[in-house]
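G., the chain you wanted modeled:
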Amino acid sequence: MASKSIIIAGVGGQGTLFASRLLGRVLIDLGFDVKVSEVHGMSQRGGGVVTFVKYGEKVASPVVDLGEADLILAFEPLEAARWIKHLNPEGEIVVNTRRILPMPVITGETTYPEDITGNIKKSGLKVTSIDASSLAEDAGSLKTVNVVLIGVIAAKTDFPEEAWINALKQTAQPKFFEMNLKAFEAGYNYIEK
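Predicted structure as tokens:
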């Protein structure tokens, strides 16, 4: 099989690195060669965090070039806009609709762009938008937004649901497994309105 490329993009503290570990665990367990590259940026100050994940029969490098990503998993709309040029025309973007205001917006230096997700949809790209933050809160913690989003992409694959749940058991701390499972199922069973 040809390799597939995924970008996981968010803001520091949203759990993008946990999401990449969970995704990597699923792919390894299913027998794929997997390469992961993490870029932390200013993550400790609320800045962007991005992870490149490539998988296939044999993968040489985790780097995802412009127009190469098959999937972008964006934890926040501005991060979706930041990485959209990396999406290939047949690819898909899954975006959490809840905004996190960057410091220049908070200080009034600039404004947050309007209707990012709507503008991406108008471009003709395949977009799934979801208020993953609300589903995470319903699952027990906003910190599970990453697992809600993983659930959404899991439902779009032909990988067995059990593989995702087994990877979640291996990746999540045992005391948080049930809450993460609830978050995963919320994303997995999500139907875009």
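The helical segments are 16-29, 77-83, 103-106, 116-122, 132-139, 145-155, 161-171, 177-188.

Shout if anything looks off.
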